[in-house]
Amino acid sequence: MRALGEWVLRHRRLVMVGWLLITVVGMSVTSTVNNRLTVDFSLPGQPGTETAAKIVQAYGNGGSTVPLLVTVTMPEGQTVTGNEQAIGDAFASVTKADVPLRVVDEANTGDDAFRTDDDRTAYAMVFYPFPDSFSSVLPTDVVSKAVTAQAPDGATVGVTGMDALAVGDESGGNSVLVETLLGGLGALAVLLFVFASLLAFLPLLVAAVSILTTFLLLLPITLFTDVSFIVEFLIALVGLGVAIDYSLLFVTRWREERDRGRSNHEAVVTAMETAGHAVLFSGITVAIGLLALVVLPVPFLRSIGYGGALIPLASVLVTLTLTPAILGGIGPRVDWPKIRHEQESSRGWTRWATLVVRHRWVAAGSALAVLALLAAAFAGIKIGAADSDSLAKNGPAYDAFQVLRSGGVPTGVLTPIEVLTDADQADSVAQTLGEVDGIDAALVPTGDGAEVDGQKVVVLVPHEETVNSQSVAVVRDVQDVADHTDGVIGVAGLGADQVDFLHAVYGNLPLMLGLICLLTFVLLVRAFRSLLLPLKAVVLNLASLMAVFGTMVLFWQEGYGSNAVFGIAATGAVTFWIPIMVFAFLYGLSMDYEVFILSRIREEYDAGASTDEAVIRGIGRTGRLVSSAALILFLAFAALASGPGTDIKVLATGLGIGILLDATVIRSVLVPSLVSLFGSWNWKLPDSVARALRVEPSVVHAEPPRRRD
């Protein structure tokens, strides 16, 4: 690290010009990268995905989408009875649109399940193609205009469905650019408080370069494989927070060394040896957590692993080259006005650390109790998708859905099960599967377009929407019966996707978890020159993640917070892909603070301090830094939560809550109290392990007598 610092200082103009060119190129390719991002949640090799692909190939729609529900409500005093032909013609007109749409209604099934109890409203299922990009628009207007043009005089037409409800009143949310600017403004406010000088703008500059560099590095990946649109949000917001955190750590250490009397050159090199070393290991740890997603047999999660791992790597690269280059040149002049000085530890954090060390048993017990209470809620987690009650509370889609619900239509119509069958056995399949407990109706469409290549799609309507790990039980029952029913080719639909995802992802979770923990442990043994400290770090990270998941269950699934903060009712479940994403990101991001704190504690211990003294000095030096860094990341996630869609909000709040919990309960209370409790055991490293990892042996000091709590 010293050699790198010396090289950057000797070639700082070259380094800055190089990053300027990279930034310009990154800016020019950003739109190209965004246009290449995909919306694809398929699970190749899983039965639901394979069946959905066959349905899409035959019909050009459905399979991997839930249908829109188009309603025709007759005016007061009139009923559907007597207007069947006109309503049927209105629904059939949808199939003439430019978009390949498939209609299932009373006219082509002969089933009166498509009416409300009062006989005033008729509805149809309209299956549409899966969107090919994040900006794709639902064919809601296409369907509405087509039916309205043919509907009986005075009738009211509405369009609803899970996706239409998710869009809600179409007020949407902030764009990625607006979210990034909001996060940047929040970060600037924190940085101005931390530095009280023009240096506050340096981490923002580093973040901007890092984000554009990440997009540039992502471009070749998009040429070889599909990359999920979610990566765009993560690069912008997580990249902003991570890059600022790394630069904040480096600049703070540089200021400390300057205030201690070192020359600017030596201050930069010392910051590289200490803070730069911590940044390097932090970045690798975050990247490991994300790259572990690659072992999962899910393309969109793999792409998030590839793209997400570029975020910390780009941030590390920029922080360890551009930051020292700027500080080595104009750093002292930019550190103006010089209001805050860093030669002394934070008095407040030193007093806090002293209190925690003095009452280490009480502190550790209290922190563990908080984690245990939050983690207990994790036992009740339901993996799936947001239910209809948590989606829109206003707008035309909500109004249309309320007409159906008040008319006695089961909510299962939102998530029908599509069963691809041999055409000549479709009726017998419908009869058999319609008897499965929890199925309200088994529909066999007839007429033009119903049969393609000797195949038909039997549509099953469950009594309740199949959106989470408990409500998909009926889908599993259907699959079990279908496996032993002649004529069945496969089962598809949202519920089938849920079952496949639970099997493919959470069935492979032990492999991913073991890989992350092993790699992180080895890396941290090398960083801390200890066996106990890395083990404690890994265990605490897993414990804090369980607490985060418990908090998400309370906040979103049960609704204790979602309605008050976002005006969104309890979701009833945590979206199937979000826990794995929260785990991958938080495992590495929270480890950042562990590395920052323990690196400084290790440094103080190696300088001759006792364990308790090292803890107090380390927290005194890093407490304000870690709390500021956590606040910046939290503000970035708060900006992310302002984006459109409930799922993005759930992801953002999970990450934000995790960061705050980690920076407060874990790093400010549990870490210092446990390190103090472990005493000299923290620093033990067998010589054989030190030689294998090519690090210096760990020297253990004699500990002075301790006072009791």
Automatic annotation (TrEMBL):
Xref: InterPro entries: MMPL_dom, Mycobact_MmpL, SSD
Major location (coarse): membrane
Transmembrane segments: 12-33, 176-195, 202-223, 229-254, 275-298, 304-330, 361-381, 504-525, 537-556, 568-589, 625-643, 655-678
Domain of life: Bacteria
Annotated Pfam families: MMPL
Domain SSD span(s) in chain numbering: 195-329
Keyword list, A-Z: Cell membrane, Membrane, Transmembrane, Transmembrane helix
Location relative to the cell: Cell membrane
Membrane topology: Multi-pass membrane protein
Matches recorded under Gene3D superfamilies: Multidrug efflux transporter AcrB transmembrane domain
The name this protein goes by in its record: MMPL family transporter
Originating species: Nocardioides mangrovi
